[in-house]
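User: Structure please.
Assistant: Input sequence and predicted structure:
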Amino acid sequence: MENNQNVNNRLKLVFPSEEYKDKIQEFVEEFRKNGENIIPGSGGLDRLPSFEEWIQKINDDLSKEKAEAKGRVQAKQYIAIRTHDNKIIGVTQLRYRLNEHLYYYGGHIGDSIRPSERNKGYSTEMIGLVLEEAKKLGIGNVLMTCDKENKASARTIMKNGGIFENEVENDGKITQRYWISLKKRFADGRNKSNHILEKEYKNMRIDNEEFKGNISLLDIKKVKFPWYVDEEKRCILADNFKWLEIYPDGENYCLTVIYDNKENVSEWYYDIARRVGEENGIPYEDDLYLDVVIVPDGRIHLLDKDELQEAFEKRELSKEVYDMAYRVANRLIEKYKLKENIEELNKFSRKYLEILKRG
């Protein structure tokens, strides 16, 4: 049986099957007794005539072709089961991509907690588990929505990292839209934990005429294996490398300066970002796929255009954000076509490398 369990061991997600028929029917009945005929995130459980038809429907939805033939999107249905007593606590559906309606009003995730188990933190846990599944599927940005009046749902979304974007109206109902990034990259190297075995991390906040923001140093002592890129197999990660990471306030990028084991620059790597921020004192960038790479001989590469295009086509970002990514990338490319700007960048990064090494 397939399942996903959270770190607190309170809930696990299970794809529904015949063995859960009685518990699922009892789950639905509780909603009806509470005067609720709609169960969001149930994949039609609240409206299909029989349990067997629902099972067939959610199995069909696993197939992109079968789902689209019925005018739906590919999706996976889950029931959330409490581990200590196997009680069904909630239902949730993960949609693999968004159509026009879901982009504005439904989002990637629908969910419900049974009436008797609400206000116990289960919704936050259940959504956290679904987000883990979304990340496995390569979904970089998850849209969640809720009615404006549903303050509890909004709090749950925000607890899982949701950032409010806007409100939209449909037939007099106002829906709030939130984005949850699954592509945050942190300065302390946690995203490379499968590759970096030993490291030291330092960060300093800068606020002067030259720069305002965070600058971090990731001193990489030991790695599992080196990384090589580009035609000449340039190394960007190995034992005793240093990554100087620069997070400027108010910009849609962060810069990683990669120094080799002799402290020569291997490359300047700009990650285009939806936003730059801090979480628990650690700088991060909310990655937006595009990257601009500058190598010491002056060559400039624009990377991952296909990933940005795919995310746009899957409606994981708006046309405004898509255009912004290219606007920022093109500005950086034009700037560093001038040799003197690369030289200035080298001086700046070297200065703060030395400061952080001493600090």
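The chain has two domains: 3-181, 184-358.
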